[in-house]
Structures are given as structure tokens and as C-alpha cells.
Design brief:
The chain is an all-alpha fold and 370 residues long. The protein contains 17 helices and three strands. One of its GO terms (cellular component) is cytosol.
């Protein structure tokens, strides 16, 4: 029998959290573009994903205060990070180990999603700071969650414009239906395992270059074109000729353009001009035009995110860490939903290997005469 590869097009469960139906991204029924235009905050979106309703002003204020107050790491985690964060491993491997350790400290049996999200944001900011040989920064109670996360990564308090941009980036990455890392988290959650095990598994899935790691590969591509002064069109043809994938283009769901990329494109242009990185954006425009003309492929969310993160002063190896920080909100929403179902995810497979084999004859089992 022929089966869709990678479960493409297969509906495996119901969800109240997010949808990509008709190539529109909605969170609990709200169109993401509208939320961005109305200056929704990251905390507001997290509350929505976890509760399937928007908070009122009192709830939002209390929720923001609670999350920020929990942006503190256990001493055991700090000691581990001081030891491993500067190691040559990929930062996502460091995050994987850190997330696992978080599941063993400070009475974690009673850790709930707000505390877990706050710890993850703080741990990721700490990894980035340590890699830059900078000290940890404590959360500022006067700032919101996204602003604090940016401050704790970069050491700079964002102005209103940058605050809006970064809040939007975090909102657009907060959830995306049953993507690979989210589905991984749900599979683990279906066994009734703990939250940290689910999040650790999701981090492992996100690390891959075909998922969260794609943004690093996009920046590698842009850097290679600039460093070798290559023509973007010729670069594409050379890569295709040797069977390499052009990263940042195409999407399994969005055949007519990723709505998140459309928003991020404007931010990439704006930040590239402010930070003197116009050459990167100019190449992105040329690549995007040619890929659409050549293969009918549109940029996806990773394409412009890579440049935005670079303009924020982040090293490319840490790009996927920021993705993980944003997506933890969605992972936790799906873990809660899946645990509530109390149903083990256990699909079937179609065996297509050889049949009717005979062990005795194939192994030539005979008595050895001495």
C-alpha cells in the first residue's frame, strides 16, 4: 500500500489550540495577523494557548507578574551551565541537557507550566550570555516577558519599536499545530510522562535542520554568498546541481506563502537598515524572487527570522535556542491537552519486508562433529 510520507495530510487528533486550515494560522480561533496588528503581547498569547480564551486586564497583569517572578534558575542548573555552556557542543545539545536537569531539581513534581516556561526562557538567555562570556542577568519586574527575555539575552532594554518587533517574533513562533517537535512532545505526554520529559523530547526534535535548525542553515547560505561575492541566482543553480536543498523556502502546509514570513519580511528590512545589514536583506530579496520564479516556492518563517536574529546581535548557533524559547509556550499547551486525553499515541505500520522465511534453513543449523 502507498502511505503518505511523514504523515503528510493525516489527521491524527483534534486540538483546540491552533490551526493552519486554509493556509491561515489561528490561535484558538483568532487570526494571528490580527493579533499582531493589534499589538498583542506574548503573555496574552500564552494565556490564550493555555486557556483557549483571552485574559481580561486583571488576569493579564497577574499572569505577566507571575511569569516574570518565576524567571529564576535553580542553583544546580546555574552550576551546570557554568560548566557546559562554553563547551564546543551545539547550543541545542546544551539546552537538551539543561532541560533534562531542570526536571530533577527543586521539587519539580509540583512545577506547573508557568514556572516551566519561565525557567526555559531564563535558561536559554543564560546559555547565550555565557557563550558570549557575559554574566547572568536577572529579570526586571518592570518589563514584560518578551522584553525581559530579550534584555536577559542581549543586556539591552528594548525601546517601544523593538519591543513590538520581538513580541511579534515570539508570538509567530509560539505554536504551529502538530509540527514535528510539538507532535514529539504529545507522543511523550500520551504516556503520562512528566512535563520536563515532554519538553526535553521536543527540544531534541527542534534541533534538526529540517525543523528549527533551518534558520541557522539560512544564515549560513547568506553568509556564503556574501563571503564569496556570489551571484544569488548562480548560487542557487550551483547548489541544486549538486543536490543540495535551498533552505528557507517552501512549506508542507503553506503552498501560497507562509503568513508568518510575510510579517517578518518587513521587520527584516527595518532592522537590516538600522543595523547596517542591508546586504543580507538585498540578497534575500533576490533569492526570494528567483526561487518563486524558478520553482514556485515562497519563503517560510525561517527565512527572515535568520536575519532578524542576526540584527539583534545573536550568533547563528543560538538562533534555534530562541525558536525553542518561543515554542515552549505551544509545547506546554499541547502537553496539557494531550495529558487530558489520557490516550496513548501508538500508530500502526505496514510491514513491507520479506515473509515466510525459515530460521533453521537460513542459519544452516547443523551439529558440529568433533
Amino acid at each position: 500500500m502507498d502511505h503518505p510520507k511523514g504523515l503528510a495530510g493525516i489527521v491524527v487528533d483534534d486540538t483546540h489550540i491552533s490551526s493552519t486550515k486554509n493556509e491561515k494560522l489561528t490561535y484558538a480561533g483568532y487570526l494571528v495577523q490580527e493579533m499582531v496588528q493589534r499589538h498583542a503581547t506574548f503573555e496574552e498569547v500564552v494565556f490564550l494557548l493555555w486557556n483557549q480564551r483571552l485574559p481580561n486586564k486583571r488576569e493579564l497583569k497577574a499572569f505577566r507578574k507571575d511569569l516574570v517572578s518565576k524567571m529564576v534558575l535553580p542553583a544546580e542548573t546555574v552550576r551546570l551551565l557554568l560548566y557546559i555552556a562554553r563547551e564546543p557542543q551545539h547550543p541545542m545539545s546544551i539546552l537538551r541537557t539543561t532541560t533534562s536537569l531542570l526536571g530533577t531539581t527543586n521539587d519539580v513534581d509540583h512545577d506547573e507550566p508557568p514556572k516551566i516556561l519561565a525557567k526555559m526562557l531564563t535558561a536559554i538567555a543564560a546559555i547565550i550570555r555565557l557563550r558570549d562570556d557575559e554574566p547572568f542577568l536577572e529579570a526586571d519586574p518592570k518589563l514584560g516577558v518578551a522584553d525581559n527575555f530579550l534584555f536577559m539575552m542581549t543586556g539591552k532594554r528594548p525601546d517601544a519599536e523593538l519591543s513590538y518587533i520581538f513580541n511579534t517574533v515570539m508570538i509567530l513562533h509560539a505554536d504551529h499545530e502538530f509540527n514535528a517537535s510539538t507532535f514529539t512532545a504529545r507522543v511523550v505526554a500520551s504516556t503520562m510522562s512528566d512535563y520536563y520529559s515532554c519538553i526535553t523530547a521536543a527540544v531534541c526534535a527542534l534541533k534538526g535542520p529540517l525543523h528549527g535548525g533551518a534558520n541557522e542553515r539560512v544564515f549560513d547560505m547568506l553568509t556564503e554568498i556574501i563571503d564569496h561575492d556570489e551571484d544569488p541566482v548562480e548560487f542557487v543553480e550551483q547548489q541544486v546541481a549538486v543536490g543540495r536543498k535551498i533552505m528557507g523556502f517552501g512549506h508542507r502546509i503553506y503552498k501560497h506563502g507562509d503568513p508568518r514570513a510575510a510579517i517578518l519580511k518587513g521587520f527584516a528590512e527595518e532592522l537590516s537598515k538600522k543595523t547596517g545589514n542591508e546586504k543580507y536583506y538585498d540578497i534575500q530579496l533576490k533569492l526570494a524572487d528567483y526561487m518563486l520564479q524558478r520553482d514556485g516556492l515562497h519563503p517560510n518563517v525561517d527565512y527572515y527570522t535568520a536575519l532578524i536574529y542576526h540584527c539583534l546581535g545573536l550568533e547563528k548557533e543560538t538562533f534555534t535556542l530562541v525558536f525553542a524559547a518561543c515554542r515552549t509556550a505551544g509545547w506546554l499547551a499541547h502537553v496539557m491537552e494531550q495529558r487530558g486525553e489520557k490516550t496513548l499515541i501508538r500508530p500502526n505500520s505496514e510491514y513491507v519486508g520479506p515473509t515466510d522465511r525459515n530460521y533453521a534453513s537460513d542459519t544452516c543449523m547443523k551439529k558440529v562433529v568433533h
